[in-house]
Write a structure and sequence with these properties.
269 residues, TIM Barrel, single chain, two-stranded antiparallel ribbon, binds zinc ion, 7-stranded parallel sheet
């Protein structure tokens, strides 16, 4: 597959406590694949709970930034961007914004991994799905995702339908949940991430699903690409499937970021 012209904006580092491999190895893998650009977007320190298996600590943040910047300055053949993946946690976003403003990120990804305190994508807490009204749960997720889009903190929404991770889906049509959320995303001017990580999760499907992505396309919401790599071998994983999906729904361009400015470039032929 032609990977020149493609990006992987969702790479982690061992600082988050649940990824392996040196950042150099992630970049080596990207070079071997021929990606044009990669971005590290490790987990920003969680402010509402301290769990060293979920994110770096606040003390580590400057070291993370320095490490990625050093790597970006020393590698040739692939551009390396400085990103960060930030949890949207109501009540903590002002403090988060203050911390973020100290650094020159190329992009900030917003993620919803917690709903009202529950880490719904964490396999340790998967019993939380039992007995739930799944339609109400999904409605809450897409409402919070819309809130995240409107927070003004983010450039990209990561894995936008993460709530499907373990395959707990409400029966019937869920587009009435997607539509108002995506109207908010489009109005806020964010991009959404097309993430291949879902293919290796119980749901076995790219984030977002095809119907969601069609609704993004209809609103001309830009898209970017990521693997959510937590090990070097995962960089650029399943990109053939991602590009095929993008083409199928009519996307011809993907978004690139530098110093928080978005630019669109053609999907490679
Ligand atoms: Zn992670
Ligand atoms: Zn991630």
């Amino acid at each position: 597959m032609e990977t020149s012209g493609l990006v992987d904006y969702h790479l982690h580092t061992p600082r988050c406590g649940h990824a392996v491999g040196d950042p150099e190895e992630y970049v080596d893998r990207a070079l071997r694949l021929g990606l044009s650009e990669v971005g590290f977007s490790d987990h920003f320190p969680l402010l509402h709970l301290r769990d060293p298996t979920l994110s770096m600590s606040l003390e580590e943040l400057p070291h993370y930034v320095e490490e990625v910047n050093r790597l970006a300055g020393s590698v040739s053949g692939v551009r390396v961007r400085l990103g960060i993946e930030v949890d949207y946690i109501p009540g903590y976003m002002k403090r988060t914004a203050e911390i973020l403003s100290a650094y020159a990120f190329d992009y900030v990804m917003g993620s919803v991994h917690f709903l009202d305190g529950w880490g719904f994508d964490d396999s340790r807490y998967v019993e939380g799905y039992r007995g739930r009204d799944l339609y109400a749960l999904w409605a809450r997720y897409f409402q919070v995702l819309g809130d995240a889009a409107e927070s003004g903190l983010f450039d990209v929404l990561a894995h936008p339908d993460l709530i499907k991770k373990f395959g707990y889906r409400p029966p019937g049509d869920v587009t009435p949940l997607y539509e108002p959320c995506l109207d908010r995303v489009a109005a806020a001017g964010l991009a959404v991430e097309v993430s291949t990580a879902g293919l290796s999760k119980p749901v076995g499907e790219i984030y977002p699903g095809e119907e969601f992505l069609r609704l993004c396309r209809r609103r001309e919401i830009p898209v970017t690409l990521g693997s959510d790599a937590h090990s070097p071998e995962e960089v650029g994983r399943f990109y053939g499937a991602a590009v095929e999906l993008l083409r199928r729904v009519g996307y011809t361009e993907i978004a690139f970021f530098e110093r928080r400015r978005m630019r669109l470039a053609p999907l490679p032929a």
